[in-house]
TrEMBL record:
Protein name: HTH cro/C1-type domain-containing protein
Matches recorded under PROSITE patterns: HTH_CROC1
Domain of life: Bacteria
Pfam families according to UniProt: DUF5753, HTH_31
Coiled coil (UniProt feature): none
Length: 279
């Protein structure tokens, strides 16, 4: 059977293949005809990550799309994981796909309105949020919270991504997990804010309307393979938008949010004040 990691990488590989095909200006029909596949069904399934892709098929697709090194090598790495057959099979949770993309990103730009993003969450803060989840079984909350807290290691690694975080002021006011847990969360955020590759800004309440009201999102940029993705999360699923017409809009929205928000020094001082208020 296919392992959870394999099914997740299969979905991720499909996202890349769709983007590469569109970048090459080829239609699903043209690819199906080139490989002698009956109809476009197999192309759609490969790009959705619902069927396995052989190494030979992957090599042929990358050649058709004009993919060269080092992109090709990285995609073959993804393909090798996607073909593994250890452990029990399952359909990957939509969050698993995001974690793989996040781990390979060179830049992460996140806007949040009411809660802090998973990348900076402490275990207690994450546990409080997950305990309210309608899709996470109570028996899995503690383990999911521990796993989420480990994602901070990405920001403190030897080769971290650039990380930009814009939060609306309510995210600093809602005491998720109670006063003590929330204070510990903000103190940990304050430590991360001091990292040289982290930029933190607050959008104050008095700002009023702005370009992303009601729409928290994350922009991921991967260098190898080259891809930009806008990620939008819901209660039961998530959307991964990779068409330039879509990602360009979210990039512009994030750039304008940064102009509208307080600068990094003023934002850090606001965070310090909030921490002091909770003591």
């Amino acid at each position: 059977m296919t392992s959870p990691a394999a099914t997740t990488y299969r979905v991720v590989l499909g996202i890349f293949l769709r983007s590469l095909r569109e970048r090459a200006g080829l239609s699903p029909t043209e690819i199906a005809q080139r490989f002698g596949w009956y109809g476009v069904g197999k192309v759609s399934k490969l790009e959705a990550g619902t069927v396995r892709l052989t190494e030979e098929e992957l090599t042929g697709l990358l050649d058709a799309y004009g993919v060269t090194e080092p992109e090709a090598a990285k995609l073959h790495e993804f393909g090798a994981v996607a073909r593994t057959r250890t452990g029990g099979g399952r359909t990957p949770a939509w969050g698993d796909t995001y974690k793989v993309l996040e781990a390979h990103a060179s830049e992460i730009k996140t806007y949040r309105e009411t809660v802090l993003p998973g990348t900076v969450q402490t275990e207690d803060y994450a546990r409080a949020l997950l305990s309210m989840s309608l899709t996470t079984p109570p028996s899995e909350v503690a383990g999911a919270a521990r796993e989420r807290a480990t994602r901070q290691a990405l920001l403190t690694s030897d080769n971290p991504p650039g990380f930009w975080l814009v939060v609306a002021e309510p995210a600093l006011l809602r005491p998720i997990g109670g006063t003590e847990a929330f204070r510990a969360q903000l103190e940990r955020l304050r430590e991360l804010v001091d990292l040289p590759h982290v930029t933190f800004q607050v959008l104050p309440l008095e700002q009023g309307e702005h370009h992303a009201v009601g729409t928290p999102f994350t922009l991921l940029r991967l260098n190898v393979p080259a891809l930009s993705i806008a990620y939008l999360e819901g209660l039961t699923d998530a959307n991964y938008l990779d068409h330039p017409k879509e990602t360009d809009v979210y990039t512009l929205a994030f750039d304008r949010l940064r102009v509208t928000a307080l600068d990094d020094r003023t934002s850090a001082k606001m965070l310090d004040r909030r921490i002091s208020e909770l003591k």
